[in-house]
Structures are given as C-alpha cells and as structure tokens.
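RECORD TYPE: inverse folding
INPUT: structure tokens
STRUCTURE:
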C-alpha cells in the first residue's frame, strides 16, 4: 500500500489561505496586463510610436513577464520555502 505525503486539506484554514493567495496572485497578473494595455496610448504619444512598435512593446513585456514567472516557479520548486 502506498504512503501518501501529508498535505493541506482545502477545508482547513491553511487550505483556504492557499486558495486566497492563488486568487490574489492571479488577480495581480490580470491587473498587470490591464495596466500595460491602458498605458499604450500614452506610450504611443510620448515615444511617437506606430501600431507595430506598440505591438512589439506588448510582446516584449509579456515575454519578459512569462520568462520571469517561469524562473520564479523553477526556483520555488528547487529551493521551496526558505
């Protein structure tokens, strides 16, 4: 018979805290993407950028954010809670 590692039950206070932290992190990521979209007209005016340059800006920002999220996840898996 397999032994299961002890975990956090979702019905426990710790489980609710984990779910709340996950939802908060997801909300911040959504807000972050919205802020970039809202700032595009001002960026275009200030930098005299056309639509193609603004698309490159959004792509570069999204790619950098995704790479850092992957790096953070990898480091979290490797080192865990310190």
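DESIGNED SEQUENCE:
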């Amino acid at each position: 018979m397999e032994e299961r590692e002890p975990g956090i039950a979702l019905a426990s206070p710790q489980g609710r805290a984990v779910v709340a932290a996950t939802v908060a992190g997801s909300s911040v990521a959504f807000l972050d993407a919205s802020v970039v979209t809202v700032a595009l007209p001002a960026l275009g005016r200030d930098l005299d950028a056309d639509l193609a340059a603004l698309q490159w800006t959004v792509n570069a920002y999204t790619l950098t954010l995704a790479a850092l999220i992957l790096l953070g996840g990898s480091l979290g898996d490797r080192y865990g809670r310190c």
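NOTES: The two ends are 32 Å apart (CA to CA).
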